[in-house]
Design goal:
This protein is an all-alpha fold and about 350 residues long. It has 17 helices and 2 strands.
Length: about 350
């Protein structure tokens, strides 16, 4: 099966609920081979197979624009809402474009745009907690990015894979992937360096490497200071994202109060459009506060998370909802906690996933 046929099969199955369980089955791989240049490039030199169709930069721009729109929907409403659109667009638009005749410049640009779209689709699958499916999309995104010579999407995808690994508790694998992303971007600007170093710090902290984590966190802070004094941000890595990494590193290393302060700082500066992140991070902040015995503050933040939760279709947000129910169980005699659970109970009855 060639690469384009593989995309058709992946996307078609992803759009069909009866087959989606097959894609999500199996185990997340902690020994995934990262595709490299010699393994990929040759296969894409023979992609064009439809002499009756020709594409130009207009088609490339349409893929870029659609990916941006779907990403905005994902940020506001979660992966379960947005991913079916991404899979359908991949099968019905991107795959025919990849098969069409094009100049070398247009072909590379289309491969790059397709790689970014696949990365986003993988990210949304991970958000649904369809981790094996997400890993499949990420691997295809790496291959297309390599064929396009697109280091940015290649590194971004490796970093996304590291985020997935650390969330699933695979610290060593998360470090391997984060380091691979950093190594593949020697010419990265300061914001990209901060983007990658922040994830390296979180991964190292998960393995208990305090010195390494703090060193990478400092590198991320220095790079972000340089980036903030220069051009407009690339992507979504901003001071709120860096503060989130500071919070995660502190929490992994056992510095609970430092973690709480950093996550509060992150939430203060996070743009309002990121509704899903707001739900997850406010709930996470509440979990950390209740661990510290700050039940009243925790309940307040859980209520804030519940304000947005019904609008977000996200497996990771659902994880935080279940964590909330478990975390307050020892405090269920507290009237404030009883009020929280009373509000949350109808939400638990809504089918999610």
């Amino acid at each position: 099966m060639d690469m384009v046929e593989g995309l058709v099969d992946l996307g078609s199955a992803d759009m069909d609920p009866s087959r989606r369980g097959v894609l999500g089955a199996g185990l997340y791989s902690v020994a995934l081979t990262i595709p490299g240049w010699p393994d990929v490039v040759g296969r894409f030199e023979r992609l064009g197979s439809d002499p009756h169709a020709r594409i130009g930069m207009g088609e490339v721009e349409s893929v870029i624009a659609m990916t941006e729109r779907i990403s905005e929907i994902d940020d506001q409403f979660g992966g379960r809402t947005a991913r079916p659109m991404a899979a359908a667009f991949m099968v019905n638009n991107i795959v025919p474009y990849l098969r069409a005749t094009a100049s070398d410049e247009v072909r590379r640009a289309m491969l790059s745009a397709a790689a970014d779209h696949l990365y986003l689709t993988g990210y949304m699958a991970v958000d649904e907690r369809l981790d094996t499916l997400g890993q499949s999309y990420y691997t295809k995104a790496l291959e297309l990015a390599l064929a396009a010579g697109d280091h940015l999407t290649y590194c971004t995808t490796l970093r996304g894979m590291s985020v997935q690994a650390v969330e699933l508790g695979h610290g060593a694998e998360a470090v391997r992937l984060a380091d691979a992303a950093s190594s593949a971007s020697p010419q990265a600007g300061p914001r990209m360096r901060a983007f990658l170093a922040g994830q390296q710090a979180h991964s190292l902290a998960r393995t208990g490497d305090r010195a390494g984590a703090l060193a990478m966190l400092r590198a991320a802070e220095v790079a972000m200071e340089q980036a903030e004094s220069k051009a407009k941000a690339h992507g979504s890595y901003d001071p709120a994202s860096l503060a989130y990494h500071v919070a995660q590193v502190n929490h992994e290393l056992g510095y609970r109060e430092g973690a709480i302060r950093a996550l509060q700082r992150s939430e203060k500066v996070r743009p309002a459009v990121y509704r899903r992140a707001r739900v997850r991070h406010r709930a996470m902040l509440a979990e950390w506060q209740v661990e510290a015995g700050r039940v009243e503050e925790a309940v307040q933040n859980w209520h804030l998370a519940l304000d947005d939760y019904p609008q977000v279709q996200s497996g990771r947000a659902d994880d935080r909802f279940r964590a909330m129910v478990a975390a307050v169980r020892p405090h269920r005699r507290d009237a404030r906690v009883r009020g929280l659970l009373e509000r949350a109970r109808p939400m638990a009855g809504v089918r999610r996933g």
